[in-house]
Amino acid sequence: MKASKRSYLDYTVIFVVLAIFLYGIFLLTGKSFIWEGDGLAQHYPILEKFYTWLHQGSLTGWSWDLGLGADKLTTFSYYVLGDPFSYLIGLFPKHSIELGYNLLILLRLYVSGLAFMLFARQRSFKPSSRLLGTLTYTFTGYSLYVSIRHPFFLLPMILFPLLAYGIDHVYRQKSWLPLAFFTGLALISNFYFAYILAIGSFVYAVLRYFKLRETTHFKVWPLIGRLVGAGATGFLLSGTLLLPSLLGVTSSTRATSSFANGYLLYPFNYYLRLPNMLVTTGNPMRFWVNLGLAGLTFLSLVFVLRHFKRYLWLNISLLLLVVGSLVPAIAAVMNGMTTPSQRWLLLGCLAFSIAVMTFMDELKNLTRNDFSVMIVSTLGLLAIVWAANGFIYSNHPHDFVMYGLLLLTLGAILSSHFFQWSQSRTIWTLLGLLSLNIIANGYGYFSPNSGGASAQLVPQGIATKYQKNYYDGAEKYTNKQKGFHRSATSKFYYYANEAKTNMGINLGTHDIMTYFSIENGSVGDFSQSMDNAQFKMNKPINQADSRTTMNNLLGVKYVFARTNQLGMQAFPYGYTPAKRKNGQAVTYQDQLVHDLGNNYPTTVLKSKNALPLAYLQTQQLSQRQFNQLSGPDREQALTTGAVVDGGAKRVKTKTYHSRTRQISYQALADDRSVLDSLSKVVDYRKSGNKTEAELEMKPFQPSLRKNNRDRSVNIDNDVQRVTKLTEQNARTFKRTQQVNAHGLKEMTSDNQNDPITYNLKVNDPLRTRNTELYLEIDGIKAENFSVDDKYNGDRNNSIFKNNAYTGISRINKLRSAIWQQSDGAYTATATTPENINTFSQLGRSNLSDYQNKQRVVLNLGYSHKDRRNIQLAFKGVKSLKFKSVKLVAVPFGKQYDQRMQNLRKQGLQGLSVKQNSVTGTSQSAQTSVLTTSIPYSKGWHLTVDGKQQATKKVNVGFVGAQLPAGKHRIRLTYQTPGLKAGELATLLGVLVIIATGVASVWRRRR
Questions:
Q1: What is the model's pLDDT at position 712?
Q2: What ranges in 42-92 are assigned the alpha helix state H?
Q3: How far is CA 222 from the centre of its chain?
Q4: What's the chain's Rg over C-alpha atoms?
Q5: Which residues contact 799 (CB under 8 A, 6 or more apart)?
Q6: What are the DSSP calls for 310-372, one per residue?
Q7: Rounded to 5 degrees, what angle do the CA atoms 368, 373, 376 make?
Q8: Which of 588, 572, 569 has the alpha carbon at shortest distance from 580?
Q9: What is the rounded average pLDDT of the residues 153-159?
Q10: Of 228, 534, 960, 985, which has the fewest beta carbons less than 10 angstroms from its beta carbon?
Q11: Taking the C-alpha atoms of 910, 914, 917 and 918 in order, what is their torsion angle to the nearest 10 degrees?
Q12: pLDDT: is 348 or 284 the higher one?
């Protein structure tokens, strides 16, 4: 017992020292632990919202603050509800939530080490070996990385050794209750990691069984029964959170993601990067490979692999990890049959640390052959990294520190043997080198002088300030307005075409934008049916692409915009500056937020056409006709009638007549950036290697020599090469004009790999007046740059610039082209005088939102003026080909206003919107369809005049129902699907535990 307490004390002291050195860098850099990406957009605002719910005592049910409205448990179970550490945030004052966020990260990291020590105590390793094994487990590259990216990703680092402890407990003929308890804890903590941990635990149990079978006799079926019983009891215990979460996941936007993103093998450059990821940190991560092993861990793995048969089952686990890291399909299976993310490699940390403890126990028994293999393996790793880099060491300087520490660790082990060091001296030396290795590993992520992660962290206190001042205080105005209403931010409110923040969830604005890992699949279906260009799996609505009718259908009454956008940028039709009682526009002065603010005051735009949350439609649309319409027509059709799943009896079916106008145009390629003649090349060189298009964009002082130091501007000495390239560009330009003679079919690049810009010249600009203009693109196919394309493009670029393209330049370009192979990501931008819009195709290496886009509808904005030209540009791929590209205009005016006002009058009277209920009174002279913008869920239940009535899905993604003629009291109430069944399961699990305990006590007394 004393030795055990001493081990925990030693670990605690060392952890505190290492944490000070590791995370103390943030005091020097003035940074918090909050990542500017998901940390600021998801984790921090979610923790603040959770803090509010915690103090209100309301963690389940429906919340209108989560975008269009969402289930609390389903949405937040992925982040905080199942994380025991998150509940500690309730102990902090509200103004110290950011401090709590940081401290809870360190607490999770510390507890991961405690969990491993508990697991290691069941093994026969020496105390010093367990200590070093615990440190290598606690401070892995994975845990350091996720601590500042996704803090709750540290939970599986705590849970996996606990599960392994529970399995070992059963194998030692002891109680299965710890395994049941830890299984339940894993299942409620996060269903995603619970899935990974379940597979990892199964593999551990099988391998551990075969290992122990060599020395212990087991009765197989009773053993399996205890393991399965523990797992089943854990499942029951977790039911309250697990069952609703599983139901939410299966009906979420992620349920349709493609398996392994279509990869059979990873890109070749992934395999080239792997060797350098073993013992280094701070390099750009590919597919979530975060290893960052300490030098001691690497040498330990070499040792156990050398003695393959002696440590057979441990080595089999290592081989499984190696194979899994090479095959996308295995990663996709481990990732819930979705993307080929290597997050599951966190399971390997347990095996790695077992290898460390094994190696440390055998340190005094090493042979010359062991030392030879370690030396060869270390030098071999360096040689492989050198070869993978293209036979050069172009690594970040920090990498050499890590390789130096690996060599120092190897040297210390050699010295301890050949100079007969005492055991104490050896342990202290290796502990010192390991600590130094851990600190250096952390600095690879945290230090601005090493990795890039530090630059992406938010300065201390800024997250709190940003959350408070996100709208510059303009929410004070909207929150005072009567009735239920929603809001949105204008495009580029924070200079991003697609903002990805959840700041609105804490400010009471009912912002339609959300950014969660689990989003309601029905909302995603609606967004996609409208051809919303901003749709992503974890951002299904975003800003609704600033489309007028979509905003009105969703009840967006207010839009927050920068004041300098007024008169410069197109806004949805009917959204005009809100006025105060004195007639002045509603404006709030800019609240400065370092590095995150938009530097302009905020104004509030208001629309009279936003529909109420619930209203009646007296007509319906046939599903068949609706499916045949385009996105812009579909949203217009929904203003004339509702689409009802299964149809609505005795409700008139309306035939929708399109109100859109197809606008004819000519597609013209812009030749100003294409070097297709010798005269252009001369001008290009005279202008400092700038094309005519580039000179128009950026003032430039001509210089004959500044950027042409190798040779003169004269092209006589290389006229043959230049002529060949200009003729090639001329042919490309001519071909693209011919292909696009009857509408845009292709956008391509020149032989410098520079994309050609295209202009759509409108034939009849008057037809675009008082309309919202859309660019409908169908049948998109992208051609990626090959290695050969990149190499030749750089060569051609050097020729045009009259620069020498030396042998070493060619080799370096070839290396770069191989290491930076395209994954299919690209962007395309459409620009009009009053608007700019972009759509992005994420690459296959994107592990959160990848979807292959073959159809896109871009909103070019509403204007009462005519549009004469739309400029199109793209980047990221060699060419884009289209089946069709159409310009479609949707007119807006008095007819549209009248249609929307009629729908508003059909809203429920006395509408009351509360947390889990919506009530009101309907009145109609004929059978009608109750139509809402409440995201559809089986948790919504309807009573009409106090009698239960089934709900139906209307308008693709929302709650609705058929209502008889007359006046009726409508009440919609919500209860989380699966919650009651989950609570019963938990109760049953508790009863099983109690019964087992009683039976155990009774047996002991007998």
A1: 52
A2: 44-56, 72-76
A3: 44
A4: 32
A5: 718, 721, 722, 725, 805
A6: TTHHHHHHHHHHHHHHH-HHHHHHHTTSS----GGGGGHHHHHHHHHHHHHHTGGG--HHHHH
A7: 125
A8: 588
A9: 97
A10: 228
A11: 30
A12: 348
